[in-house]
Amino acid sequence: MASFDQMDLSSVNAFPVLADSTISQTILGFHSSVFSNSVSKKKPGKFDDVRSNGWLDAMQSSSPPRKKMVKDIAIELASDDTDVVYYSWMLKYPSALKSFHHIVNRAHKKKIVIFLDYDGTLSPIVDDPNRAFMSIDMHTAVKGVAKYFPTAIISGRSCDKVYELVGLTEISYAGSHGMDIIFPAKDTISINHTNYIRSTHKQGKKVNLFQPAREFIPVINEVFRILVEVTKDIPGAFVENHKFCTSVHYRNVDEKSWPIIAQRVHDVLKDYPRLILTHGRKVLEIRPLIDWDKGKAVEFLLESLGLSNINDVLPIYIGDDRTDEDAFKVLREGNRGYGILVSSVPKESKAFFSLRDTFEVKEFLKSLVKWKEQMSATDK
Ligand SMILES: [Mg+2]
């Protein structure tokens, strides 16, 4: 919170940037496998631990094949057979671009609200998370969407870091998988929650903060420091502090060292039963054991922004991570809106539609802007 109080929204340099710069990437997808309390009964220091509890299997299968990126266009390297499988999968998860008119027809006389994951959705996957930038075109598209629709970015990264990367003051941000929320203050909002606070940042602009895991900040800092220490001799390992969660990236670590990195993280976590571990894409994620996720963050933001009436509002959530499934589920189960999964490989999802890559995300956002402008022109 302090960093937001002090931030200068006119300058991305006002935000704290994590120190280490060797790095892998920050795609924060999760498998459902969770660091269970039973693990703490095992003796530390043995590789058997991480092998027997499935960590290594999860690490080895944690990232789908990457595509060669040329500018903003994904060049498909897969075989024809793979294409057939993908197109079959799209029967269940149709392209949001091809279904665009269906989507906006459902939005007839409703207010569209846009939720966007960041890594792998707005920015391509890169080895250095500090360099996961949006293209200029994508930035323009997001800004355009934010002009017409309430918009929020929901990411595994810290709120400060997401803001640094996106840089738009007019939208809401939910960092640390929704555990660190900042949204524009509206006088009419009344929220009764112990973790909700109003704040004023440096420029005097009122903002609302909601941080359901505030009590975990000291313990996350403590674990972050320990993880930095225990991984510092492993070339390529990078530990990132997202304020309410922390992550250990191993994309740039030699696979022979994965058992070592898994074991050391495992040994640290056995002393922290209130933290859980989940597997992202070449990243081990450590976060508080609380009943809060991106789906809860979506519900919270809809309610807080006065957009919870499903008769008047159509939320659209675009994301590529396992953690985004919580949000897809909220929208699907309540028949409230549409989840759109960004994926170039077939996978089971609670989303309704799909987009293949960040290029298609950008095209979809641009289509929304164009549609809204045409609607506005017609109304005049
Ligand atoms: Mg993502």
UniProtKB/TrEMBL annotation:
SUPFAM superfamilies, per database record: HAD-like
Catalytic reaction(s) noted: alpha,alpha-trehalose 6-phosphate + H2O = alpha,alpha-trehalose + phosphate
Keyword terms of this UniProt record: Hydrolase, Stress response
Transmembrane spans: none
Record flagged with keyword Hydrolase: yes
Origin: domain of life: Eukaryota
Entry EC no(s): 3.1.3.12
Swiss-Prot/TrEMBL cofactor(s): a divalent metal cation
PANTHER family in alphabetical order: TREHALOSE 6-PHOSPHATE PHOSPHATASE
The family this protein is said to belong to: Belongs to the trehalose phosphatase family.
Name by which UniProt lists this protein: Trehalose 6-phosphate phosphatase
Organism: Deinandra increscens subsp. villosa
